[in-house]
Amino acid sequence: MGHLSTHVLDTMNGCPAAGMRVTLEALDGNGARTIRTLTLNSDGRNDGGPLLNAETMAVGRYRLTFAVAAYFREKGVSLPEPAFLDVVPLEFGISDAAGHYHVPLLVSPWSYSTYRGS
Questions:
Q1: Burial of 32 by CB count in 10 Å (0-12 exposed, 13-18 middle, 19+ buried)?
Q2: Which helix (H) or strand (E) holds 73?
Q3: Which partner for 44 in 8, 32, 52, 61 could form a disulfide, CB atoms 3.0-4.6 Å apart?
């Protein structure tokens, strides 16, 4: 059954990005519609399971927005103003509503990387 998940790792400190705020939006011709906003748990994941599950998965365009600067500032990291990375938006497509889509983010205050995980 299809589902969408994410996992964020803080590569500056070598740990999960516990406490980072994330927003999931659906994108269409009318703009963006917020599906949910959440705060990552101690493992850098969503506490409530998948962001989208078999009942809510749909083919379409989506965006995950990660509040990177706020997370690092809350961890006591001194960042310039404006921060090099404030929010990281990742736009991606779901072409198979029955598929598993995992969108991990590896992030520091100065860089990030993502991929379609398993």
A1: middle
A2: helix 68-74
A3: 8
Take residue 57 and report the two structure tokens written for it. 């998965």
pTM of the complete model: 0.96
The total of structural domains in the chain comes to 1
Q: Is the separation of the CB atoms in 16 and 43 below 8 Å? A: yes
Domain for residue 51, yes or no? yes
Count the residues in the chain: 118
Amino acid at 100: H
Q: How many H helices and E strands in the chain?
A: 1, 8
Q: Are 105 and 114 in contact (CB under 8 A)?
A: yes
